Amino acid sequence: MNEPDHPPKQWAQLAGLASALSWCIRIAALFIVPRNRKPSSATAWLMLSSLFPFVGLPLFLLIGSPKLSRRRRAQQRTIDTLIAHAMDAVRKNPQLVANYDPPIPQRFEPFVRLNTNLSALPAFSGNKVELLTDYAMTLQRIADEIDGAQHFVHVEYFALSRDEATEVVFASLERAKGRGVQVRVLLDHLGSRKYPHFQDTCTRLTNAGIEWHLTLPLRPIGAQFSRPDLRNHRKIVIIDGIVGFTGSQNLITRTYFRKDDIQYDELVACVSGPVTAQLHAAFLTDWYSETGVHLAQKIPSLLVASPSKGQALCQVLPSGPGFENENNLKLFTALIHASQRKLVIGNPYFVPDDALMTAITSAAQRGVDITLINSEAVDQFLVCHAQRSYYEELLKAGVKIVWYPAPNLLHAKFMTIDDDIAVIGSSNLDMRSFQLNLEVTLLAYDPSVVIDLQAIAADYVRKSKQIYLSEWQTRSDLDRLSENIARLTAAL
């Protein structure tokens, strides 16, 4: 007699085993996920692990930590120590104290001290800041400055592509290399490789004899494992330690090779004077991290490479998963809390955490005139709908929200606080920029810079459409559902 098959019993045993294992994963997640993590982020990860235990916890173990490796963070601390030693040497030189250790007005002292403690970079005076908004003219200006280089050109971008728009810069880099200038280039691996000319771009740099490296190159296995979600989002150009550029604009065509009609409007700061050395310190840190080459040992001489060029008191704040703190989030929150009369925020991706949202709404409720400039155009579905989920609360608090008109997307990232503090940089106002991206921010504690930035912001607002609470509350249920779902993903 043939023995009966028992597939139902075997399947039941497997199902029971899977159920038991899923509950073990859920319980393990309670011990692993919340440790040193914000409640909102921990809740989102726990919910994902609870609903999909065989996906959620492994995914958390892969990308859940918002920090770079211990090795990379140790390299950051090494650079911070070098900067601190260089500043000690500067303070002992009476000829340099005026610009490199200037007296700080009481209004700015808390922010200067905060940023110095976070990044080891103090405020320097004697700077000139010029704001650039024309996409093509900015690329031409960078090329012109490179054509004047005598010693070195250092370039770092999240998205870097050799195309018709950027050819002017690539040609200037080749000319600089041809006359003996040292040219070094850093480009983010995933930020650049997704564009059509990535291989051609790398070949062009190699053929020109330019030393280049990928930042945070994707390595899925091995001792040098690198995660795909931690990216270098900085945009920095340094010429001879005298002139620097930073802001929101990448080195790529204005359309980013999109198939739709979206074009990106940008804001870049061209700086000259002592603070250029601080932008350079951010580049040197990233070069050391990617190559192991200690160019940063030259920091003491670089700190005094650029003489006074103007009157602006400036400071640079690098941030990202290489630091122990969320540097940019702490800065932005402190500045918003300190605003007294007027605050203008321009940012394409506004998905704040609880602290930043509380700072903005409480400032509006205590009478600060706040304007948030977003864009009507949508280039990232989840981010767009996540940020719009905050509109109703902001509008009820008294924040004015305006939409920069499509098809252009305002990619500029800036703030003006009252009439005396300007912030320009690469950082979005979302958890990616606060925790996962390496960013760089320029602060100008200077009314003349603020006046220039306020004029630019006023032009943005003039072109834009204001969003009113009564109108916003009539949006469709489908839009509300999209916003709610997108908002849940933001904490991850």
Task: Explain the overall architecture.
The structure is a single chain. The chain has 492 residues and is α/β, with parallel strands linked by helices. The chain has three domains: 29 residues; 241 residues, 2-Layer Sandwich (Endonuclease, Chain A); 164 residues, Endonuclease Chain A (Endonuclease, Chain A), CATH 3.30.870.10. It is 46% helix and 19% strand. The chain has 20 helices and 18 strands. The strands form two sheets. The chain has a 16-stranded mixed beta sheet that branches. Strands 8-14 form a two-stranded parallel ribbon. It is globular. The termini are far apart. The mean pLDDT is 88.
**Terminal Cα separation, in Å?**
58 Å
Q: What is the helix content?
A: 40-55%
Strand content: 15-25%
| CATH architect. name of the largest domain | 2-Layer Sandwich
Count of folded domains:
3
**What's the tally of helices?**
20
Return Rg in Å. 24 Å
- Secondary-structure content class: alpha/beta
Contiguous runs where pLDDT drops below 50 for at least 5 residues: none
Shape: globular
> How confident overall, as mean pLDDT?
88
CATH topology of the largest domain: Endonuclease, Chain A
The CATH superfamily of the largest domain is known as Endonuclease Chain A
**What assembly state would you assign to the polypeptide chains in this entry?**
single chain
Q: What is the CATH level 1 assignment of the largest domain?
A: Alpha Beta
Largest sheet: 16 strands, mixed
